[in-house]
Write a structure and sequence with these properties.
The chain is α+β, with helices and mostly antiparallel strands. The chain contains 7 helices and 6 strands. The strands form 2 sheets. The chain has a 3-stranded antiparallel β-sheet. The longest helix is centred in the N-terminal third of the chain and has 24 residues. The chain is extended. The N terminus is likely disordered.
Length: 186
Amino acid sequence: MARVRLSRGRHVGAHAVQHPLQAVLERKLAAEVSGWAPDGLLDTYTTERRPAAARVLHNTRAQVALLAPGPRVDALREIFTALAETEEANRLLTDLMGDLDLRYDVAVDHPLAGRYCPDLGLTVSGTATSVARLSRSGRPLLLDLGGRSTVREAARPWADRVEVVAGRRSGGRRARTARRVRGLGR
């Protein structure tokens, strides 16, 4: 039987609770201190992040349950292991562990709105890169994938706070022409 290695919560949801949580709070505090935050911005922090924290707790409880000794849990663990080896279940578990299936309410009716941006392969100034590489700074990122100066011009007032990158999607796939990868706080 394949052994499923589970964390005891130390790494579970680290993405969900630690890094983005800290980054969101840092951006909101910076906006407040700098004087450009809209009224009530800091009040949105709990509303946005509480569901992510609740999901991490739920996930941790499920993992702890699988660690319990005994024949009943052994049977459950065997079934879970078999499921985890399927592509669809593996994707679901990866998304849950990385918080990639979370969708924030952004009042836009599009299936990708409010979700984390997939790690697209990109070409920027003739160099191959990816959304993940461009996101390493932690600053809000606006991708202009259509080569439209209007996108970059619209972001100019926030040039000190938003990194704007013009490029195109690698591999010949079509993509939306503009995408906000990481928001300013909402």
